[in-house]
Amino acid sequence: MSAGPSRFAHLGLGDSTLGALADVGYETPTPIQEQAIPLLLGGRDVIGQAQTGTGKTAAFGLPMVEQVDPEEGAVQALVLTPTRELCIQVTQALRAYGAHKEIDVVALFGGAPVRTQQSQLAAGGHVVVGTVGRVLDMISRGSLLLHDCRYVVLDEADEMLDLGFLEDVERILAQTPSGRQTALFSATIPPPIQELADRYLYDPAVVRVEAATLTIETVEQFAVPVEAREKAGRLVEVLDAERPEQAIVFVRTKIRCEQLFRTLRDRGKDVKALHGDMTQGARDGVMLAFKAGRLPVLVATDVAARGLDISGVTHVINYDVPTSPDVYVHRIGRTARVGRSGRAITFVESRQRRELAAIERHIGTDIEPWKEGAHAERKPVRARPRRHSKPRVRRDGQERYERLLVRGGRAEHLEVADLLAAITHATGLDGEALRDVRLLERFALVSVPAQEVDRVLRALDGQPVNGLRLHAERVRG
Questions:
Q1: Are residues 122 and 258 in the same domain?
Q2: Does residue 391 sit within a domain?
Q3: What is the pLDDT of residue 374?
Q4: pLDDT at position 78 over 80
Q5: Which pLDDT belongs to residue 390?
Q6: pTM here?
Q7: Average pLDDT over the chain, rounded to whole?
Q8: What CATH number is attached to the domain comprising 443?
Q9: What pLDDT does residue 336 have?
Q10: Which residues contact 362 (CB under 8 A, 6 or more apart)?
Q11: Structural domain tally of the chain?
Q12: Which residue has better confidence, 64 or 324?
């Protein structure tokens, strides 16, 4: 076995889980994985304070698949998420982690047919990943029974608080056994989240990964001195000069987010907004479009951008100086994923120079002034995907799936997220239609609905991903 998975073996994971980790290319545990996995395997309740991008899904997901018994037909584990997008992301990860044990993971989220999800539950799901509203709905219908659920995870708990879901979370927890093991993960622990933990977790171990430990060494950082009245025009100049493949532009408030979005749109930019006053459906649509690479520029508030863990982000632009140095590190940590370089550009008004100085002291380096033309190596603009009518895919647990082999794997720096994004934006299929993704050294495997195989093969032929041209074929035998 390679050196990477053996590092995970030291945490107490079994052979089947280690095999799945080798398939998806995990090499070294992140700090939160090193701390949380042994605690969860030992049966402890855990509070994990960690930002997106620290590896928290594997931190709770790997112990979960270790403890699930595939021979037992009941729902044994539940992960609650605040959004549909995060629900799908966690579902895909857990399916990959549990592939060698043949663990059935069912996703429950709004916007999908209730009957389809009822059929998947009736077929015998071992693990349920769901948004709070749809899980509560399934419980009220009698379709989801949690009396055998012995492992519960609350993911992005502070976002559940922001969205007003905590009361519903408590109603769901009341349906699970009192002796369950519970893990709560949250970027921040405000008083209502601490009170929730005090009521529902038993003697929890606290694991913290501070924002400052996120890797920012591969992020080039620049400052743009600017007066308030000139900021919007200066931002357009920076975007024109930098030509980002994907950029997140951070603002402090929902109102400023909407105003800047409209300004950029009126100046011809392909841009969307993401903030807390949008409906859940609108937020999910924007996040999925950005994750799939169909949207180059996203204007967002910090709270709304939680859950965005996207490898294609090349630029983070702080249109408003962050409220604290930790927030700055968290923001710019959204670029330079998986060893790639990224660029962070912060707009600084004259009255904000002290805040910039505090950030520089925190990160231990000076932030250089941005100069137009300094970015000599231009990255090619990502080709826009062709439009599709959304296919009607019947997912009731009875449809037939076929396995595809895709040329390209870890050796070409292909990632599971890249492959899924390529398939979804080339075909119009949503992420929930794709199953059993396995990333090997030179190849990748993915299962797609049988009725969609020919269309997927045509759409993927020659599809560019990170400089690689994909080619897919049916797995024979």
A1: no
A2: no
A3: 55
A4: yes
A5: 37
A6: 0.54
A7: 82
A8: 3.30.70.330
A9: 57
A10: 212, 325, 326, 328, 329
A11: 3
A12: 64
Q: Indicate whether 476 pLDDT > 50.
A: yes
- The reply to whether 50 falls in a domain is yes
Question: Of 209, 232, 253, which residue sits at a domain end?
Answer: 209
Percentage of the residues of the chain whose pLDDT score is greater than 90: 35
Task: Please check whether residues 232 and 158 belong to one and the same domain.
Answer: no
Question: Environment class of residue 368 by beta-carbon count within 10 Å: exposed (0-12), middle (13-18) or buried (19+)?
Answer: exposed
> Does residue 73 contact residue 138 with C-beta atoms inside 8 Å?
no
13 and 148, same domain (yes or no)? yes
Q: Are residues 299 and 432 in the same domain?
A: no
**Claim to verify: residue 79 and residue 188 sit in the same structural domain:** yes
**pLDDT of 376 higher than 60:** no
Which residue, chain included where needed, has tokens 């502070």? 158
Which range has the top average pLDDT, 224-233, 337-346, 405-414? 224-233
Question: Higher-confidence residue: 15 or 210?
Answer: 15
Q: d(Cα 171, Cα 404) in Å, to the nearest integer?
A: 41
**Distance from C-alpha of 56 to C-alpha of 424, rounded to nearest angstrom:** 24
Same domain membership, residue 87 and residue 44: yes
What's the pLDDT at 431? 65
Q: Is residue 392 part of a domain?
A: no
Total residues belonging to the chain: 477
Cα–Cα distance, 148 to 55 (Å, whole number): 28
Same domain, 256 and 113: no
Do the domain assignments include residue 375?
no
Of 209, 235, 259, the one marking the end of a domain is: 209
- Please report the pLDDT score of residue 447 as a whole number: 85
Residue 182 near residue 174, CB atoms below 8 Å? no
Same-domain check for residues 238 and 300:
yes
pLDDT-based confidence at residue 382 (cuts at 50, 70, 90): very low
Give the distance from CA 477 to its chain's centroid: 34
Query: Domain range for residue 462?
Result: 401-474
Q: Take residue 314 and report the two structure tokens written for it.
A: 């090349």
